[in-house]
């Protein structure tokens, strides 16, 4: 092969490699690439189309850029305390949590990185909300409740099964295989009216579809969860009974609005290149 032919072939191979690289990237946000593989994977996880997945990933990159710009960090003590909290909420100690994570094939160092990322995100959002000064009054909550009663309808009666165990693992096995019977798990069939339930549990059950399990709760005597067999009827509670829930709903809406406006402004100023 002559030198000239070799040189042309070399240039063609470079062009092909570059084309592959460009084709493998959907966008670049503040010099951070978003790959086509990541875009596809995110759309599958979120069960949405690529456009929404791309918007999600652009926001993720803007978060990272803002965390870097504001010099937000997560130190070793904060990471350790967060891991302790995660372990306690799972009914485990830190060593047990670590072993559980490793047994599931997850790199523990990567888990710690994700914890650190979560802490940085919390600090960023605290910074965003600090300047927003969201204030929800009982009067505003009552007006919202009266204007949107359909949002706060609750079931009138419920048939459900209560599962009680000493081990979280036992209940997780039931969730994975609802038809299985386990001797160490006690069950109780309940049929109650809405007003007979504690407000916090009622709110959880209200969000849980028929035929689904609630999350697992840790109690002083062990762990429990509920299977919602059937919710029936509709009742609009008195505002006084769910005032805190209404105020929390409005507060969450306001937080969403503040976050959306914040990142829309960042996106308008950001260096974003779309490569497909």
Question: Can you tell me about this structure?
Answer:
With 276 residues, the protein is of the alpha+beta class. It folds into 3 domains: 1-69 and 243-276, Triger factor/SurA peptide-binding fold (Orthogonal Bundle), CATH 1.10.4030.10; 76-132, no CATH class; 154-235, Chitinase A, domain 3. It contains 10 helices and 7 strands. The chain has helices at 3-23, 36-46, 50-69, 76-89, 94-103, 108-132, 138-147, 168-176, 199-207, 243-269, and strands spanning 25-29, 32-35, 154-165, 186-193, 217-219, 222-235, 272-274. The two termini are 37 Å apart.
Write the layout of secondary structure elements.
Elements: H1 3-23, E1 25-29, E2 32-35, H2 36-46, H3 50-69, H4 76-89, H5 94-103, H6 108-132, H7 138-147, E3 154-165, H8 168-176, E4 186-193, H9 199-207, E5 217-219, E6 222-235, H10 243-269, E7 272-274
Antiparallel strand pairs: 1-2, 1-7, 3-4, 3-6, 5-6
Helix pairs in contact: 2-3, 4-6, 6-10, 7-10
